[in-house]
Amino acid sequence: MNNENFTLSEKIVSPSYVRQGLQARRGHEQRIRALLEQGKCPEEGWSESTIELFLNELAVLDSNNFLGNCGVGEREGRVASSLVARRHYRLIHGIGRSGDIAAVQPKAAGSSLLNKITNSVVLDVLKCAGVRSVSSCFVVPMATGMSLTLCFLTLRHRRPAARYILWPRIDQKSCFKSMITAGFEPVVIENVIEGDELRTDLEAVEKKIEELGAENILCIHSTTSCFAPRVPDRLEELAVMCAKYNIPHIVNNAYGVQSSKCMHLIQQGARVGRIDAFVQSLDKNFMVPVGGAIIAGFDDEFIKEISKMYPGRASASPSLDVLITLLTLGASGYKKLLSERKELYTHLAQELKALAERHGERLLHTPHNPISLAMSLDGLQSSCDKAVTQLGSMLFTRQVSGARVIPLGMKQTVSGHTFHGFMSHSDAYPCPYLNAASAIGITKNDVELSIKRLDKCLKALKKEGNIEKIILRSDAMLNSSSLMATFPSQ
């Protein structure tokens, strides 16, 4: 409704009522105008009605929603299901053009505006979260692994002779495969054990640079957020090393936006040395569906190069999801979630430490990891080889998700490279352990229920003669499931 329509409405309904409605409408419009003017996450969250008004206004700017549109092309934003159209708020054209994911589409002004606004709001949030000097970013409709691959492929054009990527080890398949998929040879740098923590071996990194030659190295691929007892890489020292040898530096910041410590490391690394880009997941940091990531950096031209490397148009769903989420929360709401996560990290650590002591175990001392915790399982390992893995199975069947149980001596081959002690980030970590994390969105109830169920599982396993019975019962259930799969009911 524009002013002319409101004036006409006064002839039908009492003018005082219409003016009251007009004032309410202007309240919504003022919020939208501030967003368009400033390009920042609003301090206070919006109501659903304001968000839907904004999205509907964007949708009518796309050609597929023009009342008199007559499309004769191969991509005209046609959707067979009205349910699908409503799910996407009729923003069907996606984002970008064939040559650049950040480009404006002539026949999709609304979707293009959505893309630009989302990138601007996300940039503001990254700054608020701790990386104050970040200058550019964009949302890409791929998860973290493929987004890292896109960064490596972009660097290929800058360093065509390079073959290697130096990678301080973290046992997570997607970040390893991101390098393989890009066509490079990962050079795994084993971590060093300092106390209970696994930390970056800076001496080994520099030695490998000198051995291979800086010109043959595409980049150093470092990590912030990770599972304890591994801790974030020594980003400042690696950034200084990259500047010294003129080697690019890509940071896997998968779920690091929620941690002020991880974001501070990136900010400091960029200040004292070199960080070319850092990549973070949307679902892990902003509680949206899986399928998107943010690629950010400190050089506008390099970030633009990465966006141009993306082939073809892209789905607008991740951009739409994260924009709706941030407009709903507002900056204050998101900061509140970050603060609650940090408080619950301390609570989880206290509860896990008390539980460990009751069972003759200990909470591993990993002060440099701000998200993940680890509890030793030495006693369980000594009672039975299968007991550690059985604990993981028991927790899963009791609906404790996200806990990771790491036994000794696991071996895994990923894309031709064999990792010894797989999942522990080390060839020979001295003890088996259990991981738990305080990630954004966790509640006090999550902590207390998981501790209670873990306690019951440990008591059941440590009860004399119980381990063998539980393992036999579990094996029998697995065999039964295998038979059911082999001979399904007709």
From TrEMBL:
Cellular component GO terms held in the UniProt record: cytoplasm
Cofactors (names): pyridoxal 5'-phosphate
Name used for this protein in its record: O-phosphoseryl-tRNA(Sec) selenium transferase
Lineage, opening ranks: Eukaryota, Metazoa, Chordata, Craniata, Vertebrata
May act as a substrate filter by repelling compounds with a negatively charged alpha-carboxylate, annotated site positions: 74
GO biological process, one term: selenocysteine incorporation
Claim: tRNA-binding is one of the keywords in the record: yes
Keyword terms, alphabetized: Cytoplasm, Protein biosynthesis, Pyridoxal phosphate, RNA-binding, Selenium, Transferase, tRNA-binding
N6-(pyridoxal phosphate)lysine PTM positions: 284
InterPro entries per record: PyrdxlP-dep_Trfase, PyrdxlP-dep_Trfase_major, Sec-tRNA_Se_transferase, SepSecS/SepCysS
Residues annotated as binding tRNA: 271, 398, 463
The encoding gene: SEPSECS
GO molecular function: O-phosphoseryl-tRNA(Sec) selenium transferase activity; tRNA binding
Broad enzyme group: transferase
Enzyme Commission number, as recorded: 2.9.1.2
